[in-house]
Protein 1
Amino acid sequence: MVFLKKLLGSAILIFLMGGTLSAQQNALYQSVSVKFKNISVDSALRILENKIRLDFTYNSNLIPFQKKITATFDSIPLTIILDSLIQKPLVHYLIIDNQLIIYEKTDTTEFVPINSQNAKTITGKIVDRNSGKSLPYSSVSILHKSIGVISNQNGVFVFKIPAKYKHDTVVISHLGYFLSEIPVSQIKEFKSYRLVEHSVSLPEILIRNTSATALVRNAILKIPANYYNGPYIMRSFYREIVKRDNKYMSYTEAILDIYKRPMRPTLFHDEVRMVRERKYSDIRSQDTVMFKLKGGIEAVLNLDIIRNPLEFLELNNSEYQYSLSNMEFVDGKLAYVIRFAPNDEQEEAAFEGEMFIDAASLAIIQIRFGYSKKSLKKLKNLFVVKSSKNFKTYPIENSYEVSYQNLNGKYYIHHILGNIGLKVKRKNKWLASRYNVTFEMVSTDIENKRPTRFEASQTIKPNRIFSDMVSGSETNFWQNENIIPPEENITKALKRFQKEELKMEK
């Protein structure tokens, strides 16, 4: 599966230290050089206090005072040094005047288990009211709650709602359409939900006089205020699909728990725990020899580009040009549509696409992008782990969609969709095969009350080839888990794998 090298490296630190916070909070990320040699954590904190000229305030129960530490930090962000001393992922840091406050944050959002035995299942299809056209990747959720799903490419959804929410309201939304709200108690059977288009055309004078570059800059500056910046765990549904010349080779899906690290510079990384998984495959021996595609789970983690910003989301970036193209309604909120593309003189591989910025809060709520056509020519080896010397592999298309959901005034990653097209040609042969790789993740619930990291034995390595970690298939597999139902053409194709047909609830 795809692996985006542009999403890795030092981009996180550069972004978080690039002026996105107030001057006091920037002091949290200042680079510090300090050396500790076989001293207690208590003594190390005192040395650090004198070094940065701030007084530390904390609950003594948080600090492992007597633990000995030997370490050398050379121009390392202050928060990473504090993480090294305290070793607690839930600890937060705040600067007020000359005090650096160390505290453990507890949120009040309650996690509702997805696999509730009393869940109510609702199903339907989301379409345009006038044309009847399917609205793929529509959002279906409980109003003001973290639980929700995404419809599939045919607009079909299956949503399993725990009994706790039986008196709440279901919200259905799609880009450019009015929201639809229906009480859970009134939804009884499969039906079509017809959304009304809601678009805005901007006067030419407004487009000419609005600085898209300034909008993007202000949106970046407001990231700390608009997005949840602490650690949390999200239950998610993930799937990968590989096709060769439009024939399905592999269909792999799983329920994952993903631990999301804090947004600040930190020692702690995202972690993934596999809850349930299954695979259907029809891969020929020549395909496995030909090439291995890079791990899609790692791409999903990296594609949370608010936490792992790409260069088009960096402050004062002169290598991209931005333009205001229109305004659209996203989840019932008016949003600026900003197009971005690399400047002509840029020589490095670059992205192009559009982002949707909420007009009121300036939160970036959706981004659609991909490598420019010019860049694809430079990226022959980006998407493939290894390839036989008898074959040549060329990327011919790529696209990514990333969207965020609002929960209690803060945004969280919600839906990620990636698609890669590859042309594979055997040497000395005229004909070439086309491979399409699709991966998709949707967050179906969030727990941020007291998220804890997973035990090492429970985690998987995100950079491994996902289909290699999965075996076996089973009908009625997901029980009460929320998933994206397979499209009709996928369901039919899976019959070729001599397995039972995946069933959509209808």
Note: The mean pLDDT is 79.
Protein 2
Amino acid sequence: MRMTLRTLLLTGAITWTSAIAYGQAAPAPQPHEVDLTFTYGAQRSNLTTGSDFWLRGGALDLSAELYHGWSIVANIAGERASNINSRGVNLTMVTTTFGPRYTWSPKRKLSVFGHGLIGEALGLDSVFPSPTGAQTDSNTLALQVGGGVDLRLSKHFAARALQADWVRTQFPNSTTNVQNNLRLGAGIVFRLQR
């Protein structure tokens, strides 16, 4: 099944609207938290020949708490690497993922979270083999599983000390058509509502 970015965004919007409606319908003893996070990141990837390379870029993460640590998350990440092989091929990758996150706060200043997200990855400005020849762009399913640590700085700000994710994509590569990537990041969290 091939998902388009439009289908993915529509599914995310419906999920987001449902989550907000659920949050408004259920009475809560305290306001739910809404976070906007900006991170700088690097992603370790490899070619089918075994050589590894790093993509660098950033991500935007919007999460809304639904119930006692559970939240819904939308994540958009963009990364780029130049000269990933001996032929001077570049790669730009944009992932858009959505899904649940659980946050555990053993102390008020420290939060640990884990999530499982699904969505779409778009590869641009590269070479993707296909039965009809090479393409310069490709889109595929993306899975993102991982977590991180936030350190609260004030009522409305936190530092994302570390975020580590396994990102699986399925871009065509003439062999397995599967990529398992390690994404690391750090950044700043804005607490929009608390």
Note: The chain is about 10% helix and 65% strand.
